[in-house]
Each structure stands twice: as structure tokens, then as C-alpha cells.
Amino acid sequence: MNQETLFEMKDEVLIIYLPEELDHHSAREIRKETDMYFTAKKVRNVIFDYKDTYFMDSSGIGLIMGRYREVRFLKGDVYIVGVNDKIARILEISGLYRIAKVEENVEAALCAIRSNSNCL
Q: Which of 34, 38, 62, 104 is the most core-located residue (most Cβ within 10 A)?
């Protein structure tokens, strides 16, 4: 597994801290790891944290789409946080902003998931 990709569970939320480069190889590894989380844990929402990511190809788009299909089946959502301008443009062109929710950071996304206005 890519040393730069970290996974964290908070309640029913899977947080994926993405690597610097989200390409075919890393997307495949992340997909395998997230599949294990969906099988072993109760995942309802997924947060993709892009704060350290500076490159993403179409494999990254496919990764998000696949997780989106998983969580929609479970009545959950996908959140995208910490994007830079270059990644934001890719996400906008791909249409992912229409299906994923965008927050500034992981804490804001967790707050939105919990629908708790007091946590900010």
C-alpha cells in the first residue's frame, strides 16, 4: 500500500487522506483498501482529503465515482476537501462537484455529516 495514503474511520465515516499523486497505480491500491473497509466496517460516508495531492488523472475520477455508487446505496455521501486550484478544475470539468459535497477540510465535512452547526 502506498505509504502516503492513510485511512481513518470515525463512526460511519471513512476518511481517505490521498497521496501527492493520484494515478492509476495509487487509485487501484486505494480502491482495494476501501473495498476492505466497506466489507469489514459500517461505512456510510466517505471523505476524500486532497490537501497533499497535486496530481490526479482519470483514475482518481473513477475512484471517487466508484465510492459514490457504494455510499449512495447506503444513503450516504461523498465529501471532497482540501483541493488546490488545479485539482478543483479537474473535479469541476469531470462533473464530480455535482455528485460530491465540498467542504474546506475534514473537520468541516465531519460537522456537515453530523449536521451539527455548533462544531465550527
A: 34
Interval 24-45: pLDDT, tens: 999 999 999 999 999 998 899 9
How do 21-22 and 45-49 pair as beta strands? Answer: unpaired
- pTM comes to 0.92
CA distance 67 to 69: 5
Give residue-wise pLDDT tens across range 63-73: 999 999 999 98
Helix axes 58-73, 24-40, angle to 10 degrees: 10
Rounded to the nearest 10 degrees, the angle between the axes of helix 58-73 and helix 85-94 is: 60
Burial class (CB in 10 A: 0-12, 13-18, 19+), 29: middle
